[in-house]
């Protein structure tokens, strides 16, 4: 079967655009690890600003990755949860974590020689 390199490039560019930011994957990881409220998510990601987290969550909601639920309590409670579509990205994140661990191990071993 012949591969369509143009289509593959487009798919890679779409993926890189999606994960290209510094914060997208840490936010997905935080939400998939059970952090549901804004402050929980924010605390679980060192260095992210409130403004950046808000921007990322809005963008992720528009891209059908996060479901935002508002509970009209006093004070208003807002929770975020990953969509099933977002969870399909979990395998990719897991592989990226594994690759990163292995890469770090390879680099550290090279420095020892």
TrEMBL record:
Pfam families: HxlR. SUPFAM superfamilies: Winged helix' DNA-binding domain. Keywords: DNA-binding, Transcription, Transcription regulation. It comes from Chryseobacterium populi. The keyword Zinc-finger does not apply. InterPro entries: HTH_HxlR, WH-like_DNA-bd_sf, WH_DNA-bd_sf. One of its GO terms (molecular function) is DNA binding. Residues 10-108 form the HTH hxlR-type domain. This is Putative transcriptional regulator. It comes from the Bacteria.
């Amino acid at each position: 079967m012949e591969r369509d390199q143009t289509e593959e490039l487009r798919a890679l560019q779409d993926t890189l655009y999606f994960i290209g930011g510094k914060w997208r994957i840490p936010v997905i990881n935080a939400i998939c690890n059970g952090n549901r409220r804004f402050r929980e998510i924010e605390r679980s990601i060192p260095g992210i600003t409130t403004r950046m987290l808000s921007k990322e969550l809005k963008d992720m909601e528009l891209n059908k990755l996060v479901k935002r639920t508002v509970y009209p309590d006093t004070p208003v409670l807002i929770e975020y949860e990953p969509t099933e579509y977002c969870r399909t990205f979990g395998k990719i994140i897991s592989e990226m974590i594994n690759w990163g661990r292995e890469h770090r191990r390879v680099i550290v071993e090279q420095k020892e020689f």
